[in-house]
Amino acid sequence: MSSAHVTPGSVPGPKLAAHFASLEVQKHAARLGMWLFLATEILLFAGLFACYAAYRFLFPEAWAACSRELDLTMGTINTVVLITSSFTAAMAVHYAKEGKNKMVGHMFVLTLLMAVAFLVIKYFEYKHKFHIGTLPGRYYFYEGIQLPGAPLYFTVYFASTALHGLHVIIGMTVLMFSTVRAYRVGDFSANNYTMVELGSMYWHLVDLVWIFLFPMLYLV
Amino acid sequence: MTPSSSIAAPGAVPGHEATDDHGHHPSYLTDGTTVKSWLLTVDHKRIGIMYMAWVLLFFLVGGIFALLIRIELLTPGPTIMDAMTYNRVFTLHGIVMIFLFMIPAIPSIFGNFMLPLMLGAKDVAFPRLNLLSLYVYLAGAGFALWGMLNGGLDTGWTFYTPYSAHTTTSVAPVLFGAFIIGFSSILTGMNFIVTTHTMRAPGITWFKMPLMVWALYATSCIQVLATPVIGLLLLLVTAENLFSLGMFDVARGGDPVLFQHLFWFYSHPAVYIMVLPAFGVMSEIVATFSRKNIFGYRAVAYSSVGIAFVGFFAWGHHMFVSGQSTFNAGVFGVLSMLVGVFTAIKVFNWVGTVYKGAVEFSTPFAYFCGFLFFTVFGGMTGIAVATVSLDVPWHDTYFVVAHFHFIMVGATIMAFLAALHYWFPKMFGKTYHEGWGLVSAALIILGFNATFIPQFLVGNAGMPRRYYEYPERFQALNVASTAGASLLAFGFIIIAIYLTYALIYGERADNPWNSKGYEWLTASPPPTHNFIGPQPTYPEEPHFYVDPNTGKGEVSDV
Amino acid sequence: MAIANESHQEEHNMQEHHGAGRYVVIWVVLLVLTLVTVFTGRMHLPDFGLLLALVIASVKGTLVALYFMHLSEHRGANRLVFGVSIVFVVLLIGFTLMDFGTRFRLANPPGSQYSDLQAVDIGANKAEGRQGGHLDEKQKKETHE
């Protein structure tokens, strides 16, 4: 968001857009804008959480049976991977404040690698489900669970993990810009780290959503 | 530390003297005349004007659909179209008017134009996002339009499942279009909130902001908090329609009422996205044309935020007969009435402002009078339909149609037209013909009443909404309603003519109302960066008029 | 300072800088809580299993928001925005669940524990199973046998 106002190569600090009174204001605006954007993301997932809550309430047995059908090991590994990637993203901000641009780049590369790992694991989980037939709505053909509400569980499962996966991909794109900038331009410093900070905030949100999705889907 | 003090004053460029010579500094209208300079502008004023062009176009489209509905309902049987076409026409009327006209109308046109001027800022906080929101809006409108040309859809604007999941009409592109328009709405909302927080000029504290800003702020909060939920929901229904995922399918254990919960979680607060900016416009106008400080500034400001908040506790009143639990219905019924409390606070304060004011009865004030009537009448019927036992017989009749047209459309259209006339000199530096203004205002207010008061009656007599045919005993009232609608259309045509004329041949004007609103402290039309020369000084209050009773600049505030 | 005071306050708040140790601690706590929630989740606690899992998730979420996202240092609007969005999530889910919990039983979807109706058999053609599943495979097997 703030990156829109930052022109590459404008050392030492970020460029002040003409309509802002000062850099302070510009940074504040960018950060507040990001928080508002994250609020919309939270509300976006809230709609799915409401669907989840309603159907969990109506079909607790199907929910329990279906959640045991998921691969808990893969889910746990994915949770650990995502939390760790969130940690490295936080460290990137830390190094950006200290002006260690190389470390910022390294941290983001680690984050991106873990994001890829997350998606790969997710792919194998999906593949298994397509194979055994635990699929949404009318595509459901799994014989192991024939409880009312079972296809609905997988509708919620696929809708929420797919939407989350989409956010992982968007987050990776955002972080890639910061990574390239950290290596190529290397002008992040205590005065100029908004781009890193906001990208990292977005990544934490992706993590935050997964922190809730994981127990909801795998552990009921 | 950053050298903020030297660049703090907007437009305080050394060597430039304050000047009233408008030819000297090009206004935003003449600063670059190429098509590109408009299409790629990041100037909030130009974006506001571009929004105006598009929103008015969609208003025309929605209005034509409305007239088609009214002509069809002239006779009890088929009149000019078949039943399927009728279903499509009323659906498109709803979708175009709500998503393409009412939601962006006041915030995106007048909000965009006035907010930075009212805050003494050079622009909104994120000018590029502002431009993006316009194009996102157009992209969404394009999708929706494509769906309409591609056969249209017949679900009603509410897209209720299970019908929307099964109908073969082109639901998917229109749903997706509405989803995209949601992004535009969110971007505008975020932009306004951040602008209000960070771009206020020195001297403008929270309680020195014009009331329009408070209203826009409250509106933006709703846009940011509610729109994502419907975004998700529209995606789910699109998926349901295309792939039958079974999320709201009863046969697969799904619950269509859950759809309605999520739908109204956005769509009820969306009513306040439409009407809160209208309240803001009216708070400005009532002070200006009564030549009096707004009565109860803080009460009006807080009640905007209050409406935005309690508006989220009311959504269940759309579902009284949908299979929602009676307990929930009762709770939502009572909570809905809270909105009436906050709206009443505003109404009393507006009336208190007019009381003993030196009223200048010009076109915007005429619209204020109409607005007051529609708000009170529509609001009171709103309390009535929020009562569960009363709503059960009224639900889905023309009574409800008339109610929401009164409060949501009546109030908003009055404010939209009032704002258009009040800020016309500000936006274009020209005035329109006052006589024609009053004539068309009278026509529109009369026409609106003539359209919808018969609908109250016919609804109360039991005529259901969305029906293509009706018993003959309802015909007299339907004919009256159609006559009113044509009066309304006539009024709009007159406005279109004299405002277009004024745009070209209108007399030069700077501040014909002698308004003390902050946005009038710069030239009309404003220069590209809003202010030239030293920063304007901001008086103690945003609506600072001499008290006509004492002749002193007293504050007749709380 | 000739700007809105909020921005100045914000800048002041953000000038704190902590050592990396703080992030490591949070990271370790998050991992431990993940293991705890997996452990308790596998016990399949009958009534409060989901509740416990959500409480643990909320603690983890709070840690991420406060320290990774620096909400502990932010003041004013940033905190308000985050807090308000959480309130509205609760509002949405709360009112919706209140409806399901207090409904007339026949109004709930058939087959659910709060409905007296049997799940719909949409097997008018046998290709679709009782709960809406595709029974293609099963059917194939049956015809084989």
TrEMBL record, chain A:
Residues 31-220 form the Heme-copper oxidase subunit III family profile domain. It is a multi-pass membrane protein. Pfam families: COX3. It is found in: Cell membrane; Membrane. Signal peptide: none annotated. One of its GO terms (biological process) is aerobic electron transport chain. GO terms for cellular component: plasma membrane. PROSITE patterns: COX3. One of its GO terms (molecular function) is cytochrome-c oxidase activity. Keywords: Membrane, Transmembrane, Transmembrane helix. The chain crosses the membrane at residues 32-55, 75-96, 103-124, 156-180, 201-219. SUPFAM superfamilies: Cytochrome c oxidase subunit III-like. InterPro entries: Cyt_c/ubiquinol_Oxase_su3, Cyt_c_oxidase-like_su3, Cyt_c_oxidase_su3-like_sf, Cyt_c_oxidase_su3_a-hlx. The keyword Heme does not apply. It comes from the Bacteria. The keyword Transmembrane applies. Belongs to the cytochrome c oxidase subunit 3 family. This is Cytochrome c oxidase subunit 3 family protein. It comes from Corallococcus terminator. The lineage of its organism: Bacteria, Pseudomonadati, Myxococcota, Myxococcia, Myxococcales.
From TrEMBL, chain B:
Residues 38-539 form the Cytochrome oxidase subunit I profile domain. Residues 1-28 are annotated as: Disordered. Its main location: membrane. One of its GO terms (molecular function) is heme binding. InterPro entries: Cyt_c_oxase-like_su1_dom, Cyt_c_oxase-like_su1_sf, Cyt_C_Oxase_1, Cyt_c_Oxase_su1_BS. The keyword Heme applies. Keywords: Electron transport, Heme, Iron, Membrane, Metal-binding, Respiratory chain, Transmembrane, Transmembrane helix, Transport. Pfam families: COX1. GO terms for biological process: aerobic respiration; electron transport coupled proton transport; respiratory electron transport chain. GO terms for cellular component: membrane. It comes from the Bacteria. Gene3D superfamilies: Cytochrome c oxidase-like, subunit I domain. The chain crosses the membrane at residues 49-71, 91-117, 129-149, 169-194, 214-237, 263-283, 295-315, 327-345, 365-390, 402-424, 436-457, 477-504. It is found in: Membrane. Belongs to the heme-copper respiratory oxidase family. This is Cytochrome c oxidase subunit I.
From TrEMBL, chain C:
One of its GO terms (cellular component) is plasma membrane. Keywords: Cell membrane, Membrane, Transmembrane, Transmembrane helix. It holds the Pfam family COX4_pro. The chain crosses the membrane at residues 20-41, 48-68, 80-98. InterPro entries: Caa3_sub_IV, Cyt_c_oxidase_su4_prok. It is a multi-pass membrane protein. It is found in: Cell membrane. It comes from the Bacteria. NCBIfam families: caa3_sub_IV. This is Cytochrome-c oxidase.
